[in-house]
Amino acid sequence: MGAEDDPTAIRSIAVSPADVVDAYAYTRENPGEAVLRITPPFHGRMRARIHVYRRDDAELTGAVHVDPAAVLDSEARAAYPQFRPKDGEQPADSGDSSLTPDQRRKRHAAAVETWRERARESLTETVSIETEHGRRQVDLKSLG
């Protein structure tokens, strides 16, 4: 592995808050997974961009994948609106049985959009990345 392929060189990661919330929401709502992807060559300051996949190819490409949940604070993660309640929970709109499935989807989409606006302000200051030498903390910088 050359120095440019070694993610231990990374000191900070720049991310778009929109990429973070889009990746988090995508993974919650879809069968694929969205991550923040950092691709070689690696250096001190890197840019992470949203990447959607069904099969993780990071080992083949040498990319580092960051879970968007790790970049959002716990309050933002907990506030994500649930469309389908977990076992034993009532849906948020269960008191209004007059809603059609389409109305429920629209209400959920509006709640997610409100969540996105708030969550863009809820990024952590550091994030842990995986390297072949173990996990390490790097600074997180918000773009925009």
From TrEMBL:
Lineage, top-rank taxon, reads Archaea
Q: Signal peptide: which range, if any?
A: none
One Pfam family, short name please?
Answer: DUF8009
The residue ranges flagged as biased composition, category Basic and acidic residues, are: 114-123, 130-144
**DUF8009 domain: from which residue to which, for each copy?**
4-144
Disordered, as annotated region: 76-144
Q: What is this protein called?
A: DUF8009 domain-containing protein
Organism, by scientific name, is Natrialba aegyptia DSM 13077
